[in-house]
Amino acid sequence: MTTDSRTYTPQQLIEDILIDSNCISNVIVTNYVGGNFNGADQSYGYFEANGSTFPFQNGVVLSTGRLVHVQGPNTTLSDDDAPDWRGDADLEYVLNESNTTNATILEFNFEAVADQISFRYLFASEEYQEGDSSTCRYSDLFGFLIRKDDETRYENIAVIPGTRTPVKVTTVHSGIPGSCDPINEAYFGSWNGATAPINFNGQTAVLTAIADVIPNETYHVKLVIADEQNYRYDSAVFLEAGSFQLSTNLGPDLLLGNNTALCPNETIWLDASQPGTNSYKWFKDGSELLGEVNSTYLAVDAGTYAVEVIIDGTCFSYGQVEIEVGINPTVFDTTLISCDYNLDGITIYNLFDAERDITNSNNNLTLENFYLSPAQATSGTSPIPDPTSFENTSLNQMVYARVSNANGCISIAEVTLSFANNSVVLPAYPTCDNDGTNDGVTTINLNDLETFILNQNDVPNTATTTFYGSQTDLENQTNPLSGTYENTGSPYSDTLYVQITDNGVCYAYTNINLIINPSPELAPDEETYYCLNLFPQTITLESGILSGNPSNFNYQWELDGTDLMQNSAQILVNETGVYTITVTNNNGCSASRNITVAPSNMATIVDISVIEASNNNSITVTVSGEGDYEYALDTGYFQDSNIFTNVSPGYHTIYVKDKNGCGIMPQDVSVLGFPKFFTPNGDGYNDYWKPIGLNNLDTSVGVKIFDRYGKLIKELNAFGTGWDGTFNGNLLPSADYWFVTTMSNGNDFRGHFSLKR
Description:
Layout lengths: L1 E3 L5 H10 L4 E10 L10 E5 L9 E6 L25 H7 L4 E13 L3 E10 L15 E8 L6 E2 L31 E4 L10 E3 L2 E6 L6 E10 L6 E6 L4 E2 L21 E4 L6 E7 L2 E2 L7 E4 L3 E9 L3 E9 L10 E5 L9 E2 L5 H5 L6 E6 L2 H6 L10 E2 L6 E7 L5 E10 L9 E5 L9 E3 H9 L8 E6 L2 H6 L7 E3 L6 E10 L2 E14 L7 E6 L7 E4 L11 E6 L2 E2 L6 E4 L3 E8 L5 E11 L3 E8 L6 E7 L4 E5 L9 E3 L4 E9 L5 E8 L5 E2 L23 E5 L5 E6 L8 E2 L2 E2 L3 E8 L5 E8 L2
Parallel strand pairs: 21-26, 27-32, 33-39, 46-52
Antiparallel strand pairs: 1-3, 2-5, 3-4, 4-13, 5-12, 6-10, 6-11, 6-13, 6-14, 7-8, 7-12, 9-10, 15-18, 16-17, 16-19, 19-20, 22-24, 23-25, 25-26, 28-30, 29-31, 31-32, 34-37, 35-36, 35-38, 38-39, 40-41, 41-43, 42-44, 44-45, 47-48, 47-51, 49-50, 51-52
């Protein structure tokens, strides 16, 4: 393609290139706006196909960039801007958009002798991005705005045929996989590769803009295109030379792609009437329909129909419409089966249950409604008010389904209403009273019950079930049960009422008896202990059966989830962990309980700490082990604390007992002390003085006794008999005496005591 921004003035572009017709008069260009490129180029001008594949040989082009960048091939990005190049308020208002920029505008007035004008155009844009989701969101704007010259309100005629939707990237494309579906694809032209004759990534098909006008009235046209949001990614609109002409409106194309095609045996009157003294010629697929000279023509089959109107013997007006013929939906007669719950020959049907069979599961077909007669179904009158709850009036009554396709073509299918006649007798369903009460009342999982029913030989495994609590609810199809059911009203046995449906059709109705068997009654979970110090001795675990003969049950023992392969009522164990016993009775009902065997052990005494030779002697015992321990001193009571206070001097025994019965650990301990007095009177009581509670291993202890003046009275062996209160064979008087006890580690204990006579 080549472009030319200099040869033609705006007046010439409109009057001589776009219109070029004596039947459209008083053509006056009133305004033109484009980008300022310092005189080097324009954003509008003339184009020629130049032997390329572009569908217009020549014409007028308006762009949001430089005209030279309109020319192919499509190897660069047209992305132009210019100083102070603003948008257009009229375009924004009519298209209900905002924030336009880089607007190119050609405005002109005209008059026509016919009541309609049209011209052909094509929109192209860099914002067509094949495979890119941006195509779904962004588009420049353009409009062909027209109004009477003495009015202010514009109409946009650059729209999708038969709608008011503006033509732009986001309303005309073939879809972006994963981002947006095709939209108005019939009006999309192509994605453009590098060899395209124009420098844009995509383009629409050739479209026609049509406007109704009043003959010989002045109209104002504003051709405008603008970038939206920013100047990036230019667009252009091409107007075919000489295509602005008088037009005859034969209505929109009737196309399969638009779901507007005629249906078989459907006809349509084409009306080309124009004011004035006119003559008419009709054509089909390019060939004149000889003898057809009226202003109307009855189209009965597919084809491209055209009309040539000579207005007042002078001006030619052309009209064309493409008509395609669709097909009626393919539908299938069927029989809808329901259950006659009370056997009176009358029941309720959901007629839409037959839809899958009628349409053969074709999602492109729509089942509109059901009717009592073929005539009503064909005309679409008097539909059945509530097809989801239709009560028949006779055996094998017939109703009629009206089915349409996307093109609106209709077919009628016959639906015969019949009854299910399948005899299903279900065995009783045994279940267990598993809530721990054994009162004959339990909760039943209806999904498990359905699985039980579908496993019966005379029930299709493709069926589904619906449960009811009473025959009345089944007949009325009310209060269906779901999830779980508790037989609160009938302990140990109950009856549910079942509707069996296969492939959406009632197959049978029946009932099923529920038998609730008791489960074994077991003692609650418990915890016991195993003494690790007694390994490999064993302890006995009991199953915990509270009633019944133990020989009438089966047993399974597990340790921490591992099967021990033992099946007796009691077992011997010497390993800690969680033991689970599952007991099963003759009805197959089971109950389980857990016995946690925790480790325990005799204590190991790690340390005994003694505070001695004080006013408050104490002993602290430190132990280790897996048990729970308590402590006693000599023959006293056991206590939880490991500390004993106010301990008398002398020799003691500490006892550490495991509360879980794993044994008692004893330990001897001595507490050093010094008597406060002695009475050497020969009565056998307190006749000697010496330290109490010395460790027998401390053999080097020495004791010295002094009188009040510091005179050494006696030096004795701490492990001997003691001092008898004499000095050199003489009795010493009652008085206070002092001592120094030196231990083997060098520590000294000093104090005093009284001698009383």
